[in-house]
């Protein structure tokens, strides 16, 4: 979708220039006035497009490349699903520090996650302050405002789950030294408010033209309302909002589990919210989604990060087709017919969901421009099942848990039998297990363990089982959140205080 290119475009360069967060960058010597930049409907479109741009950036692995939220480090490497990988332990030290829970306040991954999220917050605030004053089609204007509210909620969701209490900034006019941390419940309340207001306005996915695919939809707002309530422990409201997504009939499970992660699967009816990248690269590969390089084999021009663990592989039931659609090992036949070589992977595995087959490459580049998929119906079904089980809707929980398992069989009824238990505790465990394998390597695992209240127990058990330092250092009451970047504390003159234990 060329209108929503979250890369190096003129739109982002122009609006990124006026949208630099004061806590991150020096004030430019010559700033463009909002009186000049928020006048026409095209200005509004560019401003909203720029507000999407910081959502891209999970892909960047290195401090010398434009940073992003680092979902793969915070969601995968911090968990029992993934080893850091790379050339050595010191290769991208910030990821090694997260893996060992020896995380200093100047850790690059946490700093990038914090800062890029606030760039997103600032740009959404600029839209909310300036676009309503533009003379343009009122329906389109209202939609743009709703998109900005959705995005602000999305950025704050990522902030609060990673850092707990964070500054709640609802204006673009502020100084870094004025910022203080807001209680996380206040941040959650704002997330709910923004998503609720966005949901009432945003179009359904089917109502967008093809050129606007990737913009926030009503279903995306509903899904994140469900997820927000799930993280808050309000299972009744989570069940309600996930139920709205299901009842909308806007989405359906992809018949081919693996195919929806390829470029040709970007239009899958399963996808609810995804970050779009330019993928018609032309003669010269553009600097697009670099996750294929980051996760690719060092034997095949990749960097060899994000190594699935044996514990993750062993979590799959015998014959589950999703295992070899999620990871690969030496000797596997890949989608492009090549024989897999995992290079120096210390676990013996690499992540197949992000493998870039030769038929997707331009001039051999692993920067395929493939979408990052953050919300899809398979996740909604399993989160709905969890919420339904917790409020006593056992039959509904079993129905949607088994829908996911039925899709996972991919026609082989000899594997993955339906779950039948009606015991609440046993069903909860079955749902959690299914979430782990269904969401595998999709940046959810660590945060899921935290919200379920079992991160320390699971990670320390992993360290004992495999006689490794990974997970051993997790401290209850400390490592459920990451450190606030020291740079932000310094810029606030100490008004922003550090999380306990860091």
State the helix count: 19
DSSP strand tally: 6
The biggest sheet, with number of strands, parallel, antiparallel or mixed sense and barrel status, is: 2 strands, antiparallel
Q: Name the helicity range.
A: 40-55%
- SS class: mainly alpha
**CATH architecture call of the largest domain:** Alpha Horseshoe
Q: Provide the number of structural domains.
A: 3
Shape: globular
Strand neighbour order, sheet with most strands? 1-3
Task: Please tell me how large the radius of gyration is.
Answer: 22 Å
- The rounded distance between the terminal residues' Cα atoms is 42 Å
Mean pLDDT: 89
Order of helices and strands, N to C?
HHHHEHHHHHHEHEHHEEEHHHHHH
What's the CATH class label of the largest domain? Mainly Alpha
Characterization of this structure:
Helices cover 43% and strands 4% of the residues. The chain has helices at 10-18, 34-37, 41-52, 71-77, 93-100, 108-130, 138-163, 184-199, 218-232, 235-247, 291-295, 310-314, 323-326, 377-390, 394-409, 424-438, 445-451, 455-466, 486-491, and strands at 82-85, 271-275, 305-308, 327-328, 350-351, 372-376. A two-stranded antiparallel ribbon has the order 1-3. Strands 2-6 form a two-stranded antiparallel sheet. Helix 7 (138-163) packs parallel to helix 9 and helix 9 packs antiparallel against helix 10 (235-247). The longest helix is centred in the first third of the chain and has 26 residues, at 138-163. The protein is globular and about 60 Å long.
